């Protein structure tokens, strides 16, 4: 089964690189954040991307369509985003110093995998599509863990809940900024599954295998404060101040960028996570999916309904920089 047919989206051509929306710098502050970006980039449907040359920061915000989850079209945007970043900084890699990812969904960073797709493909006994979905996710995650091969520090900005795959993806960043009130956790155990796209690999390396297994098997939800105590969240921000605290972090660290970046690179040398390891765990996850009973699928679908309600409130908002 082809990836395009199984995940039901029209693939972009091989080698696609999104173009900048505006060829001339547009410098006007965002009314909500006060940020001044040079221009919006890439023109992606569910990702809002802005470049701030002065600090060497590429700000990106997810603008989910419907449920704030990793639907196949959002994965496609992330693939194009990563290709676009590599192309944009080819020949000038040191211009990009910080890569920030947040979300415009009110109260939500991301709720993880596309549970509607999962339930449907499990009922259809379509193991291959589940594996393909998982492998796309871990390739995006693995690229981010390695800074896209660029000398960059990555920052995950959680202004709301990061659950399931949303939490997994957040773990792939060098620095995590979280607002108080945000919740974190891996609820897959509620419907008989486990998080199969990076959680065990990344958590075990950060907090040890025993603590990682406890977090995965209990399905507990943790506060931002608890995540800070565990060493997973690095910067706590008051509600509504996550963007400002991220900006302050970048300003404080600008003279120490090279040293901090080298520390994160050293960490990857000491505790490497291979793509082969992530792929093998995706296969285990897809095998476990095939063992779910109708009862577990109904629990999964109740969570989908809850995500739908959140998605109704999570409509895209005005971009950081208006292209007027």
Automatic annotation (TrEMBL):
Superkingdom field: Bacteria
InterPro entries xrefs: ClpP/crotonase-like_dom_sf, Enoyl-CoA_hydra/iso
Single GO MF descriptor: catalytic activity
GO biological process: fatty acid beta-oxidation
NCBIfam families: PRK08788.1 (NF006452)
Entry protein name: Crotonase/enoyl-CoA hydratase family protein
Organism field: Kaustia mangrovi
């Amino acid at each position: 089964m082809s990836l395009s047919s199984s995940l039901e989206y029209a693939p972009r051509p091989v080698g696609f690189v999104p173009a900048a929306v505006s060829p001339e710098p547009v410098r006007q502050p965002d009314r909500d954040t006060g940020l001044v970006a040079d221009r919006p980039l890439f023109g992606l449907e569910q990702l809002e991307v802005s470049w701030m040359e002065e600090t060497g920061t590429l700000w990106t915000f997810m603008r989910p369509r419907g449920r704030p989850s990793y639907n196949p079209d959002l994965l496609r945007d992330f693939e194009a985003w990563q290709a676009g970043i590599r192309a944009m900084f080819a020949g000038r890699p040191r211009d990009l110093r910080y890569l920030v990812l947040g979300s415009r969904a009110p109260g939500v960073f991301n709720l993880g995998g596309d549970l509607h797709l999962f339930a449907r493909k499990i009922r259809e006994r379509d193991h291959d599509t589940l594996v393909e979905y998982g492998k796309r996710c871990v390739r995006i995650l693995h690229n981010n863990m390695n800074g896209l091969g660029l000398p960059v520090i990555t920052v995950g900005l959680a202004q709301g809940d990061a659950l399931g795959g949303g939490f997994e993806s957040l773990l792939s960043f060098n620095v995590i900024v979280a607002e108080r009130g945000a919740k974190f956790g891996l609820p897959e155990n509620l419907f008989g599954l486990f998080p199969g796209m990076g959680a065990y690999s990344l958590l075990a390396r950060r907090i040890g295998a025993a603590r990682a297994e406890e977090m995965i098997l209990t399905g507990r939800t943790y506060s931002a404060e608890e995540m800070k105590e565990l060493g997973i969240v690095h910067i706590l921000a008051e509600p509504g101040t996550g963007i400002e605290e991220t900006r302050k972090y970048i300003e404080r660290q600008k003279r120490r960028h090279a040293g901090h970046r080298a520390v994160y690179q050293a960490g990857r040398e000491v505790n490497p996570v291979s793509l082969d390891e992530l792929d093998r765990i995706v296969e285990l996850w897809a095998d476990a999916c095939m063992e779910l009973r109708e009862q577990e699928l109904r629990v999964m679908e109740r969570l989908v309904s809850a995500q739908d309600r959140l998605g109704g409130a999570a409509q895209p908002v005005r971009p950081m920089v208006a292209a007027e």
